[in-house]
Amino acid sequence: MHYMIAIDGGGTKTRFVLFRQDGQVLYELLLPGSDPLDIGVEQSRSLLLEGIGRIAAQSPGPISGIYAGVAGLYYFSDFFGRDMCAELGCDHFRIETDGRNMISCELTHKEDGCCLIVGTGCGTWIRRQEGDVFTHTGGWGYLADSQGSGYWLGREIVRAVCRAFDGRGEETLLSGLLQRETGLAMPDCIPPLYAGGRAKFASLAHLVFEGRRMGDRVCQRILDQGAEFLAELIWVAGGFFDAPFSVVMGGGIAANFPEYVELIRAKCPPKANIIPAEAPPVFGAAVEAMHLCGIELPEDFRTVFLRSLRK
Hints:
single chain; 10 strands
């Protein structure tokens, strides 16, 4: 029996799963976000090694392979790969950005397509077998390129509240919603928001959906603009495909707010087949771990894995 570890690392949390080759999940671990653009390369590496060590200790036998998809790793994958392979002494170990996790959680390992990640951050990854294409559009980090993401929505909420407070912007229900969320009125709510960083801003995103349902025009404009930014990524991705193509859409914001998915879908090219992710991205990491070890997926692998995975 082979035992493997699948890892999905994002800006808010990192999920580690120990599983058998038949798909049975044996142990799970949740740690904070591991995006090196957020917390730095050394802290990200330490967090991942800690998680791998803790979960490997629960395995009934040797670990055959480890696959890790981590947000922000596009810039550091060579360093992480060399460094961590030596430390782990694992023959079948691969660490890269998290785009393949999302694609493989709904498409087969070799099926062409792309994904749109809408969580704390956002970005689109494109996979095409011809020419061995695996590339991205958007996703250049939250300071440069986060439009439409949970962080961006949270930032736009705070921006709208600040502008209304100053008299520069339109009155909005977001002012009261933000005060209810933080327990503080303007301007006292600002320091703890900054202290919480990107994840704190992203945690505010639900307020804009609440405000939209209450008929707030500012909330509607924010969500329309966010959907436009995200659909733009899919229009660019469409240039890699001559025929209709699949887009797996996932991430915390997409999973929790289907109305946002529909706003984005309405602005995407007609040949884009939007597939809301039903499996979590860590399942895609498990698919990739199996492939890495050269093990064919059993027919019921998905069913067994998801049934034994904590929700």
